Structure formats: structure tokens, C-alpha cells
């Protein structure tokens, strides 16, 4: 089928009920349908899934989708099934399936019913699966969260490293679609190289979030009081406060509660029931604030988070961008406030001490960027976008006056009264 013959808008409406494409989606989809290697870089929430889901539904054969998280794969499969006539249109292939279930998946693929096959990268190392996939028609291979392939990314997964070899074994000329929300040029290079697609057509959306206000304050011993004041000034609004340690999360949640603020803790040390309860309380607005470690956020889709506070500075600009990115998803106000003390950087350096040297070097380099960001007098937005390889002109760009360094140019961001916090 040629691209001209397909009415992409009609397919979009039919399969997903959407009346138009977002951002670069249409161009990307045309390129994927045409069978080219494609590289998609869009911020979280940009609509990357559709860039492979729609082509998969249109094209002959089955698209293999590699994704690192079983929960995310299941969500997508459920969503696709909900809008399809045949349940077999999408499947997950993983180690938890029994023989009968695996047979059912294989039959659906052989019979041309399955358009999307989601697999975790470790499942693809199974000989049996690879041998099977060699024998069927694969439309293309989508590697979601492709930054997992890079040690420079924030979520390196060694299993992703083998993908290139495995894809080649499944079929020599299978088009590859890599997708990520990580915009740093280093990670991008790594992805193109590691997936073996130097010639991929690259689509990169802007990472500018014009409605977010960025601010860094020096972290003094009064940080808790400062946070309380900030939250009280924003009474009734939803917000997230990120802390490095579980202990600090618990302490700060309590301090906020004692001060009459509706706050709950969230970290991986809490039992699953409590975590779900606290997350739901946040979504249902039974609590205003979640004090959390980075365990909180993946897959949380609350559009009206009005502030994200970093009690502790994150370990990379990317983490900072991802975490602050949870504010203002609805396009409304989103205040991003980070507290910075150089002592916290030293603490993060210490955490890396036991790790392999290469990893330490990368971690150190990423931290230096965080220091530069925290201490810069340049526009925060300009800094972040530059880090992501994007030129930003504050005079003409959207959100050009939305950070502390632009609004209050003389302010020095330097922590004078560092304190031990753990
Ligand atoms: P990403 O993977 O880039 O973070 P998703 O693929 O999860 O983003 O999409 C984010 C949200 O945008 C989802 O709720 C999705 O349904 C919605 N979405 C995607 N494309 C469109 C579109 N063309 N029109 C309306 N909503 C869309
Ligand atoms: Mg995604």
C-alpha cells in the first residue's frame, strides 16, 4: 500500500477517535508507513505511542514493540483492544505466559490478527521467540523508551544493548523506529549507533514548556519553613515535593501535616496498598501534596499539578526536566522550585562511590551540569533547552520571561548556609 492511498486522518479517527494529529505525529507516521528507519524525540505526553500504533494497524504484518515496563505494555494493550474488534490485535509476549497462552499469541500472529506485539527486551533473548519471529511477517520494530540503550540516559537497561543483534536475527531489513523523551545529543547519538540506524530520519519536537516557571533557591537550614510558606501561599493547589531519601520523605510529610497542610508520603519502602492509597488520594484531591522519592511519577497523569518542589537537587538535568515536567500538563500554571546546596551534590557523588568507574564518570559529568544549572545566572529555560540541543531566544521564545534569572537578574544563587540533612 502506498502512503498516498491511505487516508491517515480517517484511520486516526476510526482507530483512536482523535480528530487531528498532535505536533509531528503525521510526518512521523508517514515516514514509518513508508518503511523507513525513524527516530522520534518528543517530550513525555507528546504522543509518541501513536507514532507506531497507527502504522502498525495500517501495515501488513505484525509490529514488534519493545518497552521496558510490563505495566506500561499492559496499559497500551488494553487501550488498543478497547478500540478494536479483535482482542488478538495486540498481545504481550513475556515469561509469565503459560504454554497455551504462548500458542494463542503465536496463532494470532500467524493468522494475521495481531498488529502489535509488545515484548520486554529480556524476552527477546529467548531463542524460541526469536526463532518463531523469524518465520512471520514483521512490519517494523518499535523501540520505545530508546534511551534505555544508553549509559548516558537516566534509565540504562543492559538488555537493550542486545537489541540490534536480535533485530538483525529476526530479519535483516526490518525497519526500526526508536522513540524517546530524552533529548540530549549524546543519548541520541548513542541510540542511533546502538540500534544500527545511522540513516534514520529524525523527528525532534521542541522541549520548551512555556507555562512552567523555573526557580532555584539556595538551600539553607530553613528549607522546611520555606517549603511550608510556599505551599501555604498556594493553598488548595496540587503539588509534588521530591526528596532524595525515604527518611526525608517521611519527615517532611509529617512536618507539613503538623503545619496544617494536607500531605502524604510516597516511596518504594511503603507497602503497595499504602502507595496506591496515597496516589489515589492525590488524584482524587483528598490530599494537596505528595512528598515523594522519584518512585512517584512514572505514569502519573494528573494534569493540574501546580508546583513541583525539589527539596534535594536531582542527579541530572534530564531527571530535573522529567520531574518538573509533571507540573502544568494542562497548560496552566506550573511552578518548579528547586533547593540547591553544594553539599547535596557531594552527597550524590558519594552514592556513586561503589559503582563501576565508567558509570561514576558519567554520573559525575551529569552532576556537573546540574551544578552549572543551579549556579547559572543565565535563563534557566535557555540553559535547559541548550542542554537538549535547542537554541532558545528569551526575547522571542514562548515563556521567555518565566524563570527567576530572567525576572530577577541580579540574584545570586549560591548556598551560603549549607546544612547536613541526613
Ligand atoms: P508519550 O509516549 O510521548 O509520553 P503518549 O503516547 O503516552 O505520549 O500520549 C500522551 C497522551 O496524548 C495520551 O493520553 C494519548 O491518548 C494522547 N494523544 C496522542 N495523540 C493524540 C492525538 N492525535 N489527539 C489527541 N490526543 C492524543
Ligand atoms: Mg511513551
UniProtKB/TrEMBL annotation:
| Residue ranges of domain Helicase ATP-binding in the record | 29-201
In alphabetical order, the GO MF annotations are: 3'-5' DNA helicase activity; ATP binding; DNA binding; four-way junction helicase activity; hydrolase activity; metal ion binding
Keyword hit for Nucleotide-binding: yes
Task: State the EC number(s).
Answer: 5.6.2.4
What GO terms fall under cellular component here?
bacterial nucleoid; cytoplasm; replisome
Uppermost EC category: isomerase
The alphabetical list of record keywords is:
ATP-binding, DNA-binding, Helicase, Hydrolase, Isomerase, Metal-binding, Nucleotide-binding
Known cofactor(s): Mg(2+); Zn(2+)
**Domain (Helicase C-terminal): residue spans on this chain:** 222-379
Q: Which reaction does it catalyse?
A: Couples ATP hydrolysis with the unwinding of duplex DNA by translocating in the 3'-5' direction
What does the similarity note say? Answer: Belongs to the helicase family. RecQ subfamily.
- Protein name per its UniProtKB record: ATP-dependent DNA helicase RecQ
Naturally occurring in which organism (per UniProt): Winogradskyella endarachnes
Within the intact protein, the region shown is 1 to 422 of 733
